[in-house]
Design a protein that fits this description.
The chain has 279 residues and is α/β, with parallel strands linked by helices. The chain is built from ten helices and eight strands. Strands 3, 4, 5, 6, 7 and 8 form a six-stranded mixed β-sheet that branches.
Length: 279
């Protein structure tokens, strides 16, 4: 988080505010001191969320933001000094409502069954956000939430981010994008707006529970997202498409423990219950 904040202070575009929603229960001493200094300098607005929730954190920060354009960033990114300016330039055109940028992953992306075209969803609801070969701006239906800007009025019209997504909130950004485009707003992608995602292993919602908790939340969020947006007759494709994740959970990370075998079922049950209660 500290490195991301340092990079924001080096931006060539200065007419913006930084809101930080902290979901980490306990920081190392040096981190806490740096955050305190930034608050005293007025460099950031600091908000502390007791119960970790990615979507609740976003909604709280956006509700407090004074600007008309919102840029959401992850806390473990590397980017250049033109990032904010590159997003801001798009909104010179009043018809532009939302813009996504490239997120370069340091880890290899898993292969999908039945992959969709870039910026689209496949048959079982998995987004394709691998933009490595794209060179020119284009219109899309989904973009990663870690490098994503939109007009605040769009967030208000959408009713904010869906807080039914649990814990790690996998697919909460896909859900927001899909609701946005279904409502008639156009979502643009600019490959020149680039960040590098470092996949930090600690901090925020990552520090709550172990790896099997994370998988359970992922299974729940994936199913909730699918049931919310896609025809239910495609459920066999959904489960087939997510089989590699189940195998990784049980064999690689769960080491064949009884709890690991139960984790996918527990997650999908939570996803179904969340969907049923949200209707």
């Amino acid at each position: 988080m500290i490195e991301t904040l340092k990079q924001l202070r080096q931006q060539s575009y200065s007419a913006f505010e930084v809101l930080v929603v902290d979901q980490t229960s306990l920081h190392p001493k040096g981190v806490s001191e740096t955050i305190g200094e930034l608050v005293r300098e007025g460099a950031i607005t600091y908000l502390k969320l007791k119960e970790p929730s990615v979507t609740r954190a976003k909604n709280w920060a956006i509700s407090q933001a004074r600007g008309k354009i919102i840029l959401t960033l992850d806390d473990d990114l590397e980017f250049g000094p033109e990032l904010v300016k590159q997003h801001a330039q798009w909104y010179i055109k009043p018809e532009v409502k939302a813009v996504g940028g490239k997120v370069v992953e340091i880890q290899k992306r898993p292969r999908q069954f039945f992959p969709a075209a870039f910026g689209q969803f496949n048959y079982y609801g998995e987004p394709n956000t691998n933009s490595n070969e794209l060179l020119a701006p284009t219109e899309i239906k989904v973009t990663p939430g870690g490098n994503f800007s939109f007009q605040k009025e769009v967030w208000q019209a959408m009713g904010g981010f869906d807080e039914n997504f649990l814990g790690n909130a996998v697919n909460e950004d896909s859900d927001f994008c899909l609701r946005l485009t279904k409502a008639g707003y156009r979502l643009w992608f600019d490959p020149q707006i680039e960040v590098r995602h470092q996949r930090c292993a600690v901090g925020g919602t990552r520090g709550h529970g172990d790896v099997l908790n994370w998988f359970e939340q992922m299974f729940a969020n994936n199913l909730y997202f699918f049931l919310k947006h896609f025809p239910h007759w495609r459920l066999p494709l959904f489960f087939m498409g997510h089989l590699p994740q189940e195998v990784a959970c049980i064999f690689k990370y769960g080491r064949l423990s009884p709890r690991a075998w139960l984790t996918p079922t527990r997650g999908y049950w939570r996803g179904w219950q969340t969907y049923r209660c949200s209707r």
